[in-house]
Write a structure and sequence with these properties.
mainly alpha
Length: 118
């Protein structure tokens, strides 16, 4: 059990270190860095490498932004097998829609509750 927490911390930390290095060393903007990490997660899932990583690292691989790219590709590939080319489009939205919807709803509630500094 302790090893599971250790590897989740190490793998999640390494993903964050890569993101920070992209900010500091490569001088990428936050948008470019996030996009790059999403694409890396998508590519890793496309090659079948992200699922073994999540099996090994648990939350260390499912919490960072790379997991979003993994979810997009994973959903698209699953629905492509069932529904063909149209499944590529519908699959990625079905898998990620709950997370995106929650972000929009909680962001709206936060905007209603808190007063912005302006």
């Amino acid at each position: 059990m302790l090893a599971m927490f250790f590897w989740a911390f190490i793998i999640g930390g390494l993903i964050c270190v890569i993101g920070q290095l992209l900010f500091d060393v490569a001088k990428l903007t936050p948008g470019h860095t996030l996009s790059l990490l999403v694409v890396v997660g998508a590519v890793l899932d496309g090659f079948g490498l992200y699922e073994p990583l999540t099996d090994f690292a648990g939350a260390g691989a499912t919490i960072p932004i790379t997991s979003f790219g993994n979810s997009l590709v994973h959903g698209a590939l699953q629905d492509a097998d069932k529904h063909g080319i149209i499944g590529v489009l519908t699959g990625m939205f079905q898998v990620t829609s709950s997370g995106i919807s929650a972000a929009i709803i909680f962001g709206f509630i936060g905007a209603l509750v808190f007063k912005p500094k302006g």
